[in-house]
Amino acid sequence: MGGDVVQVMAADEGAVCAPADGPPDGFMTAEMIASALAKVTGKRAIPASTIRGMASRDQLPAPTSRKWGRRNLWSSEEIQEWLAQRQARHVPRATVRQIQRRLTILDEQARASGNDARLKQAVRSAYRRGLSFQQIADAIKVKNGDHHPSREAVRLRFSPYL
């Protein structure tokens, strides 16, 4: 009798389930979370490794101790709450580009005049509207103007004003 061996799901935590049809009800894999996050953020695809990395940095709920084959499983309820919060924070791409254009103009004015007070206010406003440090860094240049700063440099330079 050829066929897949299907293990019966144990009720205790830390149980290993054989990949038969899909993960157990109430649980999601990293691939499923990546697909849902891509829909929320408007991207075509997000790799599952990104989800695993985010989980290791505590940027999303930790996986449960339950496994599906060799894959970690996350609680669907916790992930749905996290996705709802993430969607509420998401800034549309058009808005990001508009804010970045304004930051670029203010950055050029600040470099020309030597007065960066308006740039600091604009960075504070952009951060409060939901732009990441990376998105802010993409809009401005370093003081001598030859390249964009890293997101850490932006965080260090503007954190007193945020």
Uncertain spans, ≥5 residues at pLDDT below 50?
1-13
The tally of beta strands, per DSSP, is: 5
Class based on secondary structure composition and strand pairing: mainly alpha
Please trace the helix and strand order, writing H or E for each element. Answer: EEHHEEEHHHHH
Strand order of the largest sheet: 1-3-4
Whole-number count of domains: 2
Q: Looking at the structure, what is the overall shape?
A: elongated
What does the radius of gyration come to? 22 Å
N-C termini distance: 66 Å
- Tell me what portion of residues adopts beta-strand conformation: 5-15%
Helix content: 40-55%
* Tally of DSSP helical segments: 7
What about the largest sheet? 3 strands, mixed
What's the rounded overall pLDDT mean? 81
Write up what this structure looks like.
- By secondary structure, the chain is mainly alpha-helical.
- The protein has two domains: 74 residues, no CATH class; 69 residues, no CATH class.
- The chain contains seven helices and five strands; from the N terminus they run E-E-H-H-E-E-E-H-H-H-H-H.
- A three-stranded mixed sheet has the order 1-3-4, with no helix packed on it.
- Strand 3 and strand 4 form a beta hairpin.
- Helix 1 runs parallel beside helix 3.
- The protein is elongated.
For the structure shown, list the relevant keywords.
5 strands, 7 helices, disordered N terminus, two-stranded antiparallel ribbon, 162 residues, 2 domains
